[in-house]
Amino acid sequence: MNRRDLEFACAIMAIGLLAGLAGAATTLVLHAVEHLTYHYSFGTLLDGVSGSSPVRRAVGPMIGGALAGLGWWLLRRRNPVPSLTDAINAPGPMQRLTLTIDAGLQVLLVGAGASLGREGAPRQFAAALGDLGTSRLALTASDRRILLGCAAGAGLAAVYSVPMGGALFAIQIVLRSWRLRTVGTALITSSIAVAVAAPVTRLDVPLHWPNPELSYLLTGFAILLAPLALAVGRGFNRLMDHARAHRVGNSWLLIPAIAAAGLSIGVLSHWWPELPGNGKSVLTVSVADGLTLASAGVILLLKPLLTALFLRAGAVGGLLTPALATGAAMGSVVAIAVNTWTPVTVNVPAVSLACAAGVLAITQSAPAWAALFVWELAHPPLWLLIVFAAAAAGAYLLDNLLKPRAERKPPH
User: Where are the transmembrane segments (predicted)?
Assistant: First the structure.
């Protein structure tokens, strides 16, 4: 083994370790903010929101939004915050402190109840730590990009305990490369990160599968869901793009704008306590078949609207779990409607997650990753991976067919 390969191997171990620490740290801070905001000691965020007083539900997210807005105003007036993709691809060291502070503000806002994903923060923090930890090694520009891209995937893997999903995220979405060096690095770093974060995450499966009776006919039904998943996914993307294009500028207006968004979700949570947070609460009740047709329909409309409201106010956060939650709500609407108004009976949890996989395939343009990620979140029977893959591939292929020829992309 030559010196370059030896240093690269050491860097892989360091990236996995640091990404695991980043995932553990952001998880601890997120839970601390959630417990402080809603004043609860045990249980999930949904338990905390449901058990808190109406005043705390409204005021908590508003205060969290104001503090995050203040932090972003102070941060952005001095340093523009690059996107993680730009930071990974840029030559030279990252803006580590800027990215780390931005990640901390994301955790603060999501923990206070904002309708944004929590996965953006650990990806940024892991990449920043990885850049710092490997800065003294003699790495080529190509190896550095591979390591930082895999750090982002490993950060995602650590917080959700999804080693395969984190690795495939780095390969398909961040780096878009199937080179052996990339694949091996992604698998090793994500596995190490999940193991390092295990004392905090306890390797808990984010969603608890109810183990109901299932039919293989679900695969055909998942394909029929493709047009609906496509419509929801495209609508979600367009709404988020519009919100970001018209967001509040980097002025002091960030403070009242994000506070107002927090107040909005806090007031609405009085009737729909599933709305605050990244979307896990919606996924949890969808998998548990705990939604009525009316509540699923309302959440289907409000979850993406509230996510767009935070983006419009100038906030930053992940969009994976809000998209998943929106898709799961759509799946619940379809399954409950079919079970109520037709002689056919379908499994609500399976249909909800299949639709979630289809929507995620559209929002991330990665059907294989979407199917695997959704399966790994709940660990249902292995054959349901075929169902999720059918929904994701069906939606993605239909999306490609409906696009002009110049815009079509091969699945990656």
Answer: 58-75, 146-171, 214-232, 252-272, 292-311, 318-338, 350-375, 382-398
Which domains does the chain carry? 3-198 (1.10.3080.10), 217-402 (1.10.3080.10)
| Cα-to-chain-centroid distance, residue 60 | 22
Neighbouring C-beta atoms of residue 91, cutoff 10 Å:
7
Q: How far apart are CA 386 and CA 401, in angstroms?
A: 22
Taking each helix axis from N to C end, the angle separating 120-133 and 96-111, rounded to the nearest 10 degrees, works out to: 150
pLDDT, tens only, 89-135: 888 788 889 999 999 999 999 999 999 998 899 999 999 999 998 88
DSSP assigned state of 136: T
How confident is residue 218, by pLDDT bands cut at 50, 70 and 90? Answer: confident
Residue 136's pLDDT is what?
A: 80
* Both tokens assigned to 48: 């905390």
Strand, coil or helix: what is 117?
Answer: strand
Q: For 117, list phi and psi in degrees, rounded to 5.
A: -75, 150
By three-state DSSP, how is residue 318 classified? strand
Cα R_g (the chain), whole angstroms: 20
Q: Which two tokens stand for residue 236?
A: 């979600």
Under a CB-based contact definition with an 8 Å cutoff, are residues 192 and 154 in contact?
yes
Instruction: Tell me the two tokens of residue 95.
Output: 């803006």
